[in-house]
Amino acid sequence: MVEMAHIVKRFGQPPAAAAVDGVSLAIRERETYVLVGESGSGKSTLARILVGLERPSEGEVRWFPPQPGSAFAAHGHGKGGVPSSPVQMVFQNPDRSLNPYWRVQNIIAEPLVLQGMARREAYALAGGLLEQVRLPRGLLLRRPSECSGGQKQRIAVARALALRPRLLVADEMTSALDPATEADMMQLLMDLQWDSGMSILFITHRLDAVHGFADRMGVMRQGRIVEEGEAASLLRQPSTAYAKALLAACQYT
Ligand SMILES: Nc1ncnc2c1ncn2[C@@H]1O[C@H](COP(=O)(O)OP(=O)(O)O)[C@@H](O)[C@H]1O
Ligand SMILES: [Mg+2]
């Protein structure tokens, strides 16, 4: 569905080390791809390039079918007059990504309103989007400060789903959650994927919860993908010492 070819990203001039140093990665339809690696290995930079928030120094991102302009920007009107966007992203910190002064209803409806949908129509869809992420409609009139951390991340997912993306990029979206809430969130993502057929790129520096969730995995280190494969076999038998060490740092080995 989308292919990143030989991506390099340098901040500053060479010989500064590249944040992303020649990564090629493809994500298929309906696939959950989990990208792991220690902090600073280039995961977020790669994700930002994928969604079009950042330009690569070298290489290119190809969508199939091709997307005009940035894939992140919504364009055109999809089925039933609802605007759509091929890719949406959810970030680690909902307190930075959700406007604290807005009600949940406004937050979820905003991507639709920005695309020209009437506010009343967008609000009418917001309740259904909340239900999709298993939250009660009663939250529509609350503000983020009146919600738990797990609820805030579900609200961020509901907002991302408003534009019915083909790919959801989740960058450390569960890293600030406790393990039980993280497990619930990953189950929700699996259910949403089952219902919608979207693909998921899930980025994390923790391997604890990816068992049974990931289809394929890539291990990133110092700007490169040092190991990639089917998740079940990679988790069972990592071939690099680095991946082994990452696994050993988690609960199971
Ligand atoms: N906007 C930026 N300007 C300069 N350096 C950056 C910028 N964004 C990321 N970097 C650097 O790129 C490297 C990779 O960062 P990042 O992609 O955030 O890694 P990760 O998400 O794996 O923790 C780090 O060394 C980081 O300091
Ligand atoms: Mg990051």
Automatic annotation (TrEMBL):
SUPFAM superfamilies documented for this protein: P-loop containing nucleoside triphosphate hydrolases
Alphabetical GO biological process terms: transmembrane transport
Keyword Secreted: no
Alphabetical list of PROSITE patterns matching this protein: ABC_TRANSPORTER_1 (PS00211), ABC_TRANSPORTER_2 (PS50893), SIGMA54_INTERACT_1 (PS00675)
ABC transporter domain segment(s): 2-247
Superkingdom to which the source organism belongs: Bacteria
Keyword Transport: yes
CDD domains membership: ABC_NikE_OppD_transporters
Record-linked Pfam families: ABC_tran
Entry keywords, A to Z: ATP-binding, Nucleotide-binding, Transport
GO MF entry, a single one: ATP binding
Family in the record: Belongs to the ABC transporter superfamily.
Annotated PANTHER family: D,D-DIPEPTIDE TRANSPORT ATP-BINDING PROTEIN DDPF-RELATED (PTHR43776:SF7), TRANSPORT ATP-BINDING PROTEIN (PTHR43776)
Protein known as: ATP-binding cassette domain-containing protein
